[in-house]
Amino acid sequence: MDTVMEVITGRRSIRRYTSEDVPPQVLEDIFAAVRWAPSWANTQCWEIVVVSDQQIKEQLQGVLSPKNPACLAMINAPLVLAVCGKNKVSGFYKGEAVTRHGDWKLYDLGLATQNILLAAASHGLGTVVVGAFDHEKAAGILALPEDVEVVTLVPLGYPDHAPGPPGRKALAEFVHRNQYGSLHE
Ligand SMILES: Cc1cc2nc3c(=O)[nH]c(=O)nc-3n(C[C@H](O)[C@H](O)[C@H](O)COP(=O)(O)O)c2cc1C
Prior knowledge:
Low-confidence stretches: none
Strand content: 15-25%
Strand order of the largest sheet: 1-2-6-5
Order of helices and strands: HHEHHEEEHEHE
Number of domains: 1
Mean pLDDT: 97
CATH superfamily: NADH Oxidase
Number of strands: 6
Number of helices: 6
Structural class: alpha+beta
Largest sheet: 4 strands, antiparallel
CATH topology: NADH Oxidase
Bound molecules: flavin mononucleotide
Radius of gyration: 18 Å
């Protein structure tokens, strides 16, 4: 079993997949990884729609710009997970936002999504987070109720390529000591 750091650093966005199906037990593990993600006051606002129907995948592909690098992944992956969340739950108390950040749904879904990516990677599966698409059209295709929004689409399958890691900032560019501006050496 790889260490957490090996899975974190070894994970890559995958945009081409083999036709091999995702085993049901592995999918259950990925759902469990969502279930155990942290969330605001344990509110767990997430809702995951698992898309395996090729026609729905094609419709979802249509809500991406053809220039989106993940366009082909939408129909090429055996599954697409639509990561959705209930509005006004995370960061809310008695219907009122508790902080200036309002709805913390995006934050909680980000944590849940990272768990999806890492759980998938630990099983040798590839994923790519897709955030640039017409969210309103996607909600219609997914038949979402009014109080639920789709945030990202995550194609999931076995990788058909092994891209190298894109560059990352050095620690000295973003880690500050005690106060902002005193950068890590
Ligand atoms: C919120 C979010 C939205 C993203 N949207 C897209 C997208 O619409 N299309 C795409 O090809 N990749 C998308 N990505 C993937 C990023 O481009 C990718 O994570 C980044 O380039 C780093 O590469 P890596 O994941 O291999 O480390 C998105 C990633 C995140 C976190």
